[in-house]
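INFO batch 0412 | record 1 of 1 | parsing
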Amino acid sequence: MNKNSKKIKKLVGIASLAALVAVLQVISNYITFGEVSITLALIPMVVGAILYGPLTGFGLGALMGVVIITAPSTATFLNFNVFATIVLCLLKTSLAGLASGWIYKGIIRINGLKKFKFPVAIIVATLVAPLINTGLFILGTSVIFQGLSYVDASGAEVVLVPSTGGFGAAFSGALSLVVAINFAIEFAISVVLSPSIVYLTKVIGNKFDLGFCDDFKNISLMENNLE
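INFO prediction complete | emitting C-alpha cells
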C-alpha cells in the first residue's frame, strides 16, 4: 500500500469515528433522563485513541467538547463565563482522549504482561476516560464557577458551586448528585463495553486496513502468534 493510499484510509477511519462521536454527543445533549444524560461518545473517542494514537484521541475529544458547548445545559455556564466554559469543555474531553491513547501505548510497551497486555491496555484506557472527563469537570467548576447559580423548574435558585468556604466547600458543591450519577453511568457503560472494545479492535485490526498505528498492528500480530 503506497503512502497516499494509507493516508486516505486513515482519514476515512478517523472521519468515521469523528462522525460517531458527534452524533452520539448530540443525542446526549438533547436526550436526558430527568437531569441525567448518558454519554456514549467517550467510547468511539477511546477507540480512536487506541487505533490511531493519542493525538487522534485528543482531536476526537476536542470535537466532543465542541458539541458539548452547544448543549442547552451548557448555557448556564456560558452566561457566567464564556471563555472559561469553552476552555473547560474542550480541555476535559481532549485530555481524556489523549490520556487514553498514552495509557494504551504505555501498557503495550510493558514486557511482562505477554499476551494479556493487549486486553489490559484497552480496558484501562477505556476506564480512564470517564475518570479524567468527570474529574476535570469537577476541578474546573470548583475553581472557576464559584457562586454560579440557576433557577430550577420550581422557580427556586440553585447554587451550583458555593461562593464561600474556600476550595473545600466549592469542591463539595461541584460534586453534586447529577454529576455523580452521570459519572456512575459513564463509568458503568465503560466497564460493560470495554471487553467488547477489546474484541472489536482485534477484529478491525485483523480484517481491515484503515491506516492504523504501526504499534497496534504489531501487537495484534504478536497476540495471534501467542494464542
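INFO post-check: Residues 150-159, 162-175 have pLDDT under 50 and may be disordered.
INFO record closed
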